[in-house]
Input
Amino acid sequence: MPQRPLSSALIQHNVGLPCQLEDSWQRSLNYGLTRDDDTQPWVATSLLKDARAENAWISQLVAPLLSRLRPDLASHPAIMVMSDAAGLVLETHGNSDFLHKAQRYALAPGNLWGEHARGTNAIGTALALQRHCEVSGGEHYLSRNAGLFCSASPVFRPDGKIAGVLDISTPAHLPRHDAAAFIRRAVCEIEHAWTSSAVGARRWLLSLHQDANVLNTAHELLLIFEDDTLLGANKLAMDAFSLTAGHFGATDLHALFPGATLQAGQMTLDAANRQRYFVRQTPPERRYSGRGIAPPAGVSPEKEKALRILNAGISLCITGETGCGKEHLARELYGKSQWHKGNFVAINCAALPENLIESELFGYVPGAFTGANPKGYIGKCREADGGILFLDEIGDMPLSLQTRLLRVLQEKKVTPLGSNTTWNVNFALVCATHQDLAARVQSGAFREDLLYRIQEFQHRIPPLREWPHIDNFIRTLWRELGAATRGLVLTDEAVSALARRPWPGNVRQLISQLRVLMALADDGCHILPGDLPGEPLPSSPPVIVPAAPVEEKAIQEALGNMSLAAKKLGISRSTLYRRLEKRQTAG
Output
């Protein structure tokens, strides 16, 4: 589109504007906007939900930061606004009482603040310039925004692309003088945390700075490498080494630092011959189930995928047989995830009575029901805010409760029992089950839409009998249980015998048997195959006596009235219940 020169009225109004804002005003004019435009572009709720789902960095990286920033935000009439890379407002936090009602609405989630939508403004102009920007009062292109002072900085992903913008807005007559430093510091922490989370199986981080005291802080330069290929960096490193998105995946470590050696205690040289201290960060050794036990070969890459899913805010469903360590894996992932500063809140959906699960999950107000705590209870969902909610045996959740859980997961809002107040919650969801949820859907026992919501990614833990190198795992587990302190030796023959067992109870059963062995053995004993506890015999399947045709017809006709059915058959109701159980088991 050809550029039109600014009108004389605009030029006169623009006296004293920084050059970058004069250019922005020119772009605003070229978009066809006028200063008295009163439209407020926004998107539909469904599109806002989609945008929030695509920008999980806000819930993963900004939400934990906000808990620390809230006291500082509360000290001044200010709000923090988070937008995506198109200028769509996704979240707003802080004190909005100072804003005029129209401005409060305009900064609410769902509003568009790109330059094309609202002319010169901190969010849209920061996106256009790809750097920090402040716009105060009449510097806004639209007159309706002249009551605001705004300071905004773009947030860069480790791959060099812009993820969105962080903005702080205050009254124009009460600007926050440290707004630029406040926002830049917050963005720096977000970009550092985002880059730090990239460490993985073959990925390592190189942190550098001219001041050794700055290492391991948010102000260090961070570079991501896979083997020796540069994959990404935080914005501080991009600026220091003049890196763009095109360098990532196409630049070698030695091309970036020609002739440099990365040895502990030494310094490295950059292309400008400047010395920098460095630390090479490699992923910590992955351990099993929170017990300090190395996992079997072949499991770690799958765990790596699950961790990425969790950090991205995607619902994770862990499946596997009873005793295979589903909750242990969930806790291990939690400890390594972006959610580790929040709580890990677990609830067993199969262990609680149906009438208590709802109050446990969503909480209740005082006096909500008979027997309720007189002080009320906030519920597991609110306890998990900022952390992980772990729903074990999700397949056993009552059908009546599944609808409400689905609504909470979609809206991230919780209303306690007996209350009209709604609470915002932000947590990562991890579910676990030994059941076939798809089959439960087919039988009508589980909602199909809830299945899609909780099983966005499935991680299957194989049964112990399928693990490769199970003999090595048994030896490691034996040591971790403290056998060495008593001089107990598990012979190779005993290990082989244990490895051949089917282990229907999986890791839980294996640990129990090893503990039994240790309890029965004398100090310094060498344990042989003959010392092993016997394998439990499989339980015999129940004998099903098919119902006679007359009995079958009576049961089918009177199934809705158990007393009538029992009377027709000439048996007691308890006997009828037992026969129905046998029929269901047989089916």
Remarks:
- DSSP finds 23 helices and 20 strands in the chain.
- Residues 57-74 form the longest helix (18 residues).
- The radius of gyration is 31 Å.
- The longest strand covers residues 162-171.
